[in-house]
Amino acid sequence: MKVGIDDISFYTSNYYLDLRTLAEVHNIDVEKYYVGIGQEQMGMPAPDEDVVTMGAAAALPIVRQLEQPESISTLLFATESGIDQSKSAGVFAHQLLGLPATCRVVELKQACYSATAAIQMACALVARQPQQRVLVIASDIARYDLDSSGEPTQGCGAVALLIAANPRLVEIEPLSGLHTEDVMDFWRPNYRSTALVDGKYSTKIYLKSLKSAWQHYRQQGGRSLREFAFFCYHLPFTRMAQKAHAHLLKLESAELTAAEAEAQITDTLQYNKRIGNSYTASMYIGLASLLENAREDISEKLIGFFSYGSGCVAEFYAGRVVPGYQQWLRKHEHQQLLANRQQVDYQTYRRLYAYPNPVDGQEHNIAAETTGPFRLAAINQHKRIYQAV
Ligand code: CAA
To answer: To test the ligand 1 pocket, which listed residue (202, 279, 282, 308) has its Cβ within 8 A of the most ligand atoms?
Structure first.
């Protein structure tokens, strides 16, 4: 039986900072950001947005279009920037989306990797009971310290994927290559709102994990490199995909021209250049970018997926694009979402960055600012109160 991605939808905040603004403030050549790390803009959430509102906003178009929302048996919510140590962000999203009480909900964490774990678990559930559909939501706000090397690689975004039998977009093949290793390249202790990162080391571990996961995939009889037409990599910044792809091609002594190598990844990068890092969501926003921006019909083409989560866990797997996929995409809505965002100046960026996270249990009403369908309206007695806009 074929199992895979039946629907995909993403969301990002209505504010963004152009990295030219950051470069001017730091007196850095903007080409370092635009070319050196391959990022042009980064999304900044409004004070009344968080991973719940973004994740529910990403999933809303999928749920609205379902004739039987009760066929969603499970909601898996993947995030690095969760809002509660105990309660799953997915339970809040479940309520905002009006999903049935008969749906199981859980949150998954392993840095930027956990959406891939969610998708593999979803495929297993659907393979066991093909009438089930599983909603996977990946949602994150990437935050680093001001003036750190990670600052230009911030961002925010969420993606929702419906996993089903006989999928309309991408069939996921069962074989995976895996690599897990206890390393401290990027982490965030419970008391911190920004990540700690050993930047250069993290890029080295990313490449090492790619090699190990790929080799594990091949050792088990995985497809050869030349069978793949495209590659979706985890995208902490888009230049990382170029480095990763060059690494993989070199490892396999592939004889591709620079243009041929670039063509295998370039369409995956279009949205992330403008959204920034969205941790768990980033690779799957890259998939939406590929499906929606490919210059030709890519039906039947094979995509290699490399998912990486610091700490670290990595996975390589393959997916095949289903013929007719184009009619199920949300290209217009996604491009409108990006086009309608508002650019902010540096002062506004600092205001959004520093928005307080009250911990005193008092009543804090939050001014309406997001243009998304859901908002965090208040925090009262330590309870987050969400509402539809
Ligand atoms: N024009 C063009 N390019 C320029 C330039 C200019 N004027 N000035 C510099 N560059 C180039 C540099 O040559 C360099 O290119 P190469 O990597 O090809 O050598 C590139 O711009 C970056 O410059 P630096 O090497 O000086 O890098 P930096 O010190 O500013 O930091 C970084 C880069 C370490 C990635 C930093 O952005 C960072 O710490 N980011 C957060 C961590 C991260 O994203 N890690 C990725 C792997 S971990 C992961 O994937 C999980 C996750 O999501 C976090």
So the answer is: 202
Name the pairing type of β-strands 72-78 and 133-142.
Answer: parallel
Catalytic residue among 80, 171, 292, 315: 80
Quickly count: other Cβ atoms within 10 Å of residue 313's Cβ.
21
Does residue 240 have its Cβ closer than 6 Å to ligand 1? yes
Q: Is 179 an annotated catalytic residue?
A: no
Maximum CA extent, the chain: 63
C-alpha closest to that of 271 among 159, 160, 373, 186: 159
DSSP conformation class of 194: S
Q: Report the C-alpha dihedral over residues 355, 284, 55, 153, rounded to 10 degrees.
A: 0
Q: For residue 237, how far is its CA from the centre of ligand 1 (angstroms)?
A: 8
pLDDT in tens, 36-86: 999 999 999 999 999 999 999 999 999 999 988 889 999 999 999 999 999
Strand pairing category for 302-309 and 230-233: parallel
Q: Which two tokens stand for residue 97?
A: 């989306």
- Residue 65's identity, in one-letter code, is Q
Helix/strand/coil for 179:
strand
* Residue 19 · residue 34 · CB < 8 Å: yes
pLDDT tens column, 6-25: 999 999 999 999 999 999 99
Q: Is 112 a catalytic residue?
A: yes
What is the pTM assigned to this prediction? 0.98
- Measure 37 CA to ligand 1 centroid, in angstroms: 5
pLDDT tens column, 265-297:
999 999 999 999 999 999 999 999 999 999 999
Q: What atom in ligand 1 is closest to the CA of residue 243?
A: 18
pLDDT tens, position by position, 351-371: 999 987 899 999 999 999 999
The Cβ of residue 85 has, within 10 Å, a number of other Cβ atoms equal to 6
Ligand 1 contacts CB of residue 43 (under 6 A)? no
DSSP code of residue 153: G
149 Cβ below 6 A of ligand 1:
yes
* Chain centre to alpha carbon of residue 165: 23
